[in-house]
Please model this.
Amino acid sequence: MDAARGPFWETKALEDMTPDEWESLCDGCGRCCLSKLEDIDTSAIAFTCISCTLLDTKSARCSDYPNRFAKVPDCLAITPEMARNSPWLPPTCGYRRVAEGRGLAWWHPLISGTPATVEQARISVAGRVSSEDDVDDEDLESYIVNWPDEDPEEEWV
Model:
């Protein structure tokens, strides 16, 4: 961080961030790894409490991050364009927050100095989700939840 100018996420365009800076915008919550359903009539996105097969549901971390694209063909790398325009990124997502000019929330490890705040703020999916390995695709509608689409930041301010 350049103290005179501010932290990189406030002073750099998303496209100008180094790979390490870009990766550090992820707070490790696991919400982007949840199955989502799209209403074909309204295009509304509904989050479920069902996670990707590679997500460790206890830690909310990818169990094979380096090989995730090879093992999960529909896994997507978050890009600056996605951060700006993807309705499936939750409002708490660090990428989305920075892209929208909202900055990082108090629970983000770059702000708090510890990943523990992601769980303290109940942003993490750890312990709140089940793996897609345990659910039939036809049953996903039964697992729709609202909490991944809510931004609880105001509750703690």
